[in-house]
User: Fold Uroporphyrinogen III methyltransferase/synthase from Paraburkholderia eburnea.
Amino acid sequence: MTSPWQPRRDGTPASAQPDEWVGPVDSAHPAPSAGHAVEPFTVVITRPAGQSDTLATLLRARALAPLDFPLIAIAPVRDGAPLREALGALDRYALVVFVSPNAIDRAFDCYSAISSIWPHALPIGVVGPASVAALARHGVTAPDHRVISPAGTADEEPARFDSESLYAALEKTLGENAFAGKRVLIVRGDGGREWLADRLREAGAEVETVAAYRRIVPEPPIGAWTAVHRLLEGAPHAWLVTSSEGVRNLDELAREHLTAGEIVELRHAHLVAPHPRIAETARSLGFDRITVSGAGDERIVDTLLGLALPRSSSQPAASVSPDGSSAAQSAAQPVQNTPASPPAQSRMTDQNDSSHVPNSGATPASAVTQSAAASSSTSSASASARPASSYASAPPPTPSGSSARRSGAGSAILWLVVVLIAAGAGAGGYALNRKLDRMDAALAQRQQAADQQTAALRARADQAVTSAQQIDKQMSQLEGKIADAQTSQQALAQQYADLAKNRDDWTLAEVGQMLSSASEQLQLTGNTQLALFALQSADTRLAASDSPQALAVRKAIAQDTDKLKAAPSTDLAGLAIKLDTALAAIDTLPLAGEALVAHTKPEAATPADVAKTAAATGQPRWKAWLDTFASGIGQQIASLVQVRRIDNADAMLASPDQGYFVRENVKLRLLSARLSLLSRNETTLKSDLAAADAALARYFDSASKETQNVRDLLKQVDAGSAAVALPTLDESLKAIQQYKSRG
Assistant:
């Protein structure tokens, strides 16, 4: 594994820079030697604020520099009543699904006010390991609680942690028909995918969804933007995007805060997404370097480390072999290659077999090692063969007695030594050939991997060339559009110059049209506020002109403005309501001679005491009694007869059919008066009101309370109609007309 450092962006080699290594050092990634400059690989974390501490710690432990740049902010929902109501009635549900750790934290914060213990028998469904950890923080863990999530371990987990995987896990754990007729609660943020809810409804479940939080677009601080600008200038970095909405927010914020060149650099920056759906969203927005890491901080860190490592693969000083030594050290290590030292040959062969060989640049060094090993084996074999041939060609001495026996024994021992040496040389050569075969196989595999990487690089280069051609084509199109825009701009400038010559004429014509429309509206609707606004707008337009005619028109406008401000306000709606009330009461008014007469009966005062009356008046008792009797008879007769005066005799001659037409004629008069009121025709209004009042006085019972009320309403409308007349805009219109006639 290589070390995550590389030379500076200014092009100076690592060996020529005096800066010291400032990153952390661990066993997996040794620090470079003094004299190698370092620019740490920066990881831009876009998770919500406060949710990336663990990931940042893991990144720092791997010598990667984290940068917090939140693209989503988690905020409380505006109305938490539905969530509280749902959590307060958990016994109604057969399953509760939390779509994210944020949903779990918000829901349990709300649930803490209801109870401190989650129901043990209620199953919980979550999407991924982060949600399982969030449940554990709130005391909900297996086996005390039933937590269902997509299956997976630290070494082997499913490729996707999403709604589809969760539904498969729910069916596997609870059964395919476990949702029929059951109620399921889904706790999520505002909005989101409806796939899981729709699938549960298709399975027969009654699904309720409540929002536990809402997502908003944050505004990163200036310091974060400064760091992003520096990274987009060419510093090594990658972006970690953990949601599709975060990718969309990144695109939106980039359009607001970045230049066109920086947006292009951002489109070509490395993006790491834990889910393929996020990668698809990023690709649809124009990002072209996307890596899917899988769920979990460890997988994300490994993916980011893989992006950081290729930066230093071209530096030979940083290459590390499996035994802990660098490739440069292995190449510089002396090798003894003499026929008399087979152990040295073995050590040399082992070292070359275990040294780190880069993809393509290590092939010559390996070839040199193979040739050295071959020459070593050849020289060893020749060295062991020469003694044998020399002893075989020497003439044997003549045997004689004991010396002959000694000579025979020595010859046998010599031959045994020769045989052993030959056998050892053969075994060494065979072992050396086996190691050379293994080295050839390893080199072939590495060469194949290097060819694959070369093909991938060529494909990327072809894509880059294609992209460059497309960019050139787009640039040509843009240049053509810019030329067209410049031509159009010149034409508009010429037209504006032509129009500017008659600017005063255009301004006065526009003001005249404006005042004419305002005058018509004033006469039709009586809206003085609209007329005032039109006069003020016209005065503002004329204020920019230095023409004497414009000054005269402004004086006339000022006079009309003062008249409108001094005009009395009229409650037209109130007067119209009074006329409507009078209209509604006409059908119930009694005509003259039709007033109901109460049933008559003789009435007389209680007889007075005759003795007291005689004593008081000094008259005889018989005379006092006679006066009292006569007075009682007169009172009884008067109570039987009523006398009323009718000034119009023809009113008594009106038949019931004629009374209907009298009422209809009065209502027509009142309707005409109402139209005259709304159209501000004061003459017709007063004429209709007078005719209606005369008909009421002539044909209707004047003693009736209802008749008197209707006549009072008509008098109030007549009195209020005096203020109906409104001023006109004649002065302003006359000034405009005079200017036009002079022109």
Summary: The longest strand covers residues 206-216. The chain has a mean pLDDT of 74.
